[in-house]
Amino acid sequence: MNVMITGGAGFIGSHLVRLFVNKYPDSRIINVDKLTYAGNLANLSDIEDRPNYTFVKADICDYDEMLRIMKEHDIDGVIHLAAESHVDRSILDPFTFARTNVMGTLSLLQAAKVCWESKPEGYEGKLFYHISTDEVYGALELTDPEGVESPFATTASSSEHHLAFGTEFFLESTKYNPHSPYSASKASSDHFVRAYHDTYGMPTLVTNCSNNYGPYQFPEKLIPLFINNIRHGKPLPVYGKGENVRDWLFVEDHARAIDLIFHKGKPGDTYNIGGFNEWKNIDLIKVIIKTVDRLLGNPEGASEHLITFVTDRKGHDMRYAIDSRKLQRELGWEPSLQFEEGIEKTVRWYLDNQEWMDRITSGDYRDYYEKMYAGR
Ligand code: NAD
Ligand code: DAU
Predict the structure, then answer these.
(1) 141 catalytic, yes or no?
(2) Which end of the chain is more exposed for a tag (fewer CB within 10 A), N or C?
């Protein structure tokens, strides 16, 4: 197969590209990425010379270019991750989110439609797989602020606690109710994908995943930002009271789920992906502090004084909690890493890859494309 992965130079995309390039040597993997501030080709330096891998620098909003790439590489499947992904940025600059997430997705869909409808086999053997988020479902209430035993703990849940902070979970049938400009733009793109399925018969899939953590995440997001700040003795800005709850999944387990769904999912369907691993931000932050201090050889709790409560994020969603039992039941997906193991691996990775981090914080990573790819 010829598979086009958009946003492959970002956090989740780079893990997915690596998985596909390694696992499917007979497939061709075309990574299409504009290299915005969030795109970093250094995330893929270990596989960039593989014969089954091609990088194309392009903007998904450029319809003509998307059509050209799809035709040139005879694309059979699209896995679409390219997006503006940071909620705080969406609050400051919603237009960029509407442009990339809505218009970009529409331009890709239309390019896929025109390309595939021009083939004798039409949509046979083709798939447009759109990666979405649990944030489109809105926010759940904290009905159990101290947390109760989770009814559905999985292998990704923490061994320390199996807590659920409410009785409700997002199901595939939960009505969309996005609150931030980011989640509104993702919801809109999900609707377009389903519209192409229902109107034109395009084989599509949508998955909605919870918060990912792991190596190569851009350090504007909570976990890498805080690991780096602890290392440098800088304040840890906790929004509000730190009581918001997120459900955390190790990024490689998300990539494995995408692989499974891409190959075995039912076209037209939706799957939720999550680990039943809920954490209050403040408790998660304490785990991170403890892990970083231990690995740096600092006394326990040495960095707790860095916690700084700051003004809350506008419209800050209180709780996300994904019910992923459909994916477990229908396709047999199981997360591979328990939370403590995943956090240990993640913190170690950031501490061992300080150069990767420094090149981002200094802005140097943006030269990578020029040095490695320009003129090739
Ligand atoms: P990211 O911000 O790390 O990476 C996004 C990538 O998309 C970057 O490489 C960027 O250069 C590229 N991109 C942005 N605009 C583009 C454009 N116009 N044309 C081409 N490329 C463009 O994002 P991420 O955290 O890896 O998220 C990937 C996808 O997964 C997103 O669609 C996001 O909504 C979704 N998602 C993320 C999470 C999470 O926890 N990070 C959870 C669920 C779903
Ligand atoms: O739920 C899936 C979503 O998870 C994805 O769709 C998004 O792309 C991804 O960015 C993530 O969104 P969040 O807003 O949950 O992630 P973030 O890392 O920005 O924040 C996690 C929580 O920590 C959130 O409740 C806000 C809080 N926070 C975040 C930052 C950056 C802080 O308290 N301080 C901070 O400095």
Answers:
(1) no
(2) C
Q: What angle do CA 300, 303, 305 make, to 5 degrees?
A: 120
How many angstroms separate the CA atoms of 102 and 105, rounded?
5
pLDDT tens readout for residues 165-223: 999 999 999 999 999 999 999 999 999 999 999 999 999 999 999 999 999 999 999 99
Tally the C-alpha atoms within 13 A of residue 87's C-alpha that lie toward its C-beta: 18
In angstroms, the CA 56 to CA 35 distance is 10
- The second-level CATH assignment, the architecture, of 2-374 is 3-Layer(aba) Sandwich (3.40)
Retrieve residue 192's tokens. 């377009």
Residue 85 CB less than 6 A away from ligand 1: yes
Q: Which residues line ligand 2 (CB under 6 A)?
A: 85-87, 133-135, 210-211, 221-222, 225, 237-239, 244, 246, 281, 313, 320
Length of the chain: 376
214 in helix, strand or coil?
coil
Q: What is the pTM of this model?
A: 0.97
Q: Measure the CA–CA gap between 2 and 26, rounded to whole angstroms.
A: 9
CA distance linking residue 166 with residue 146, whole number of Å: 9
Q: How far apart are CA 146 and CA 164, in angstroms?
A: 9
Pick the catalytic residue: 134, 252, 278, 283?
Answer: 134
Pocket test of ligand 1: the residue of 30, 32, 36, 252 to mutate, having most ligand atoms within 8 Å of its CB, is 36
| Residue of 237, 188, 236, 201 lying closest to 90 (CA atoms) | 188
- CA distances (Å), origin 338, targets 27, 113, 155, 226, 314: 31, 40, 6, 21, 32
CA 244, CA 226: separation in Å to the nearest integer?
16
Residue recorded with tokens 């992965």: 5
Query: Model confidence over 318-365: pLDDT tens digits?
Result: 999 999 999 999 999 989 999 999 999 999 999 999 999 999 998 888
Distance from C-alpha of 240 to C-alpha of 221, rounded to nearest angstrom:
16
Q: How far apart are CA 84 and CA 246, in angstroms?
A: 20
What residues does each domain of the chain span? 2-374
